[in-house]
Amino acid sequence: GAGVSQSPSNKVTEKGKDVELRCDPISGHTALYWYRQRLGQGLEFLIYFQGNSAPDKSGLPSDRFSAERTGESVSTLTIQRTQQEDSAVYLCASSVSPGRISGNTIYFGEGSWLTVV
Amino acid sequence: EDQVTQSPEALRLQEGESSSLNCSYTVSGLRGLFWYRQDPGKGPEFLFTLYSAGEEKEKERLKATLTKKESFLHITAPKPEDSATYLCAVQVRMNRDDKIIFGKGTRLHILP
Questions:
Q1: What is the distance between the alpha carbons of residues B59 and B34, in angstroms, rounded to a whole number?
Q2: What is the pLDDT of residues B62-73, one digit of tens each?
Q3: Nearest-CA neighbor of B50 among A106, A102, A25?
Q4: Is B23 within 8 Å of B47 (Cβ atoms)?
């Protein structure tokens, strides 16, 4: 597609439930990122996928968070046993080049707004 | 430790009042610096990429500049529609893949 697509755009869930957030990167982009942004705060890196390499999971805040990516396409971020502090917007981004290219611009989707009640 | 610091955290200007936002960085192996604009409820929108000290890029009322320690986003005669959060990010050389580090952003509010 023309841009990074995320779904759902909004999700309200009860505390303790599992949620899945989906990201469709820009076609041809090999790198995919997930970030979390709490209200009024900066971007918090969660996880990075690059091609068939092992993902960089260093930003995942707990073992309740996991992410998968199928080849160089769709990615799913899963949050198990959601807590109120998980409420945030989850942003997906993708870039065309492997990480070692200078000026590797990343492009963002509009985010999935998660509210845990 | 690699760091990106943006200042000020928030800035209120009158329409037409020019100013600059700062992004200072302490990183090893800078491979690119990016500016994004983020409107409330939206994902960040890419504005500029700068590669090396001395480089400048312009788009409408915005001009981004880069030195070896910092970048400035200059806003000339801003309009209310320029109100947004402006994010700076740097691409840093790492062992396997490069790393992208974001600043916390500057919230800009232009008063009519």
A1: 14
A2: 999 999 999 999
A3: A102
A4: no
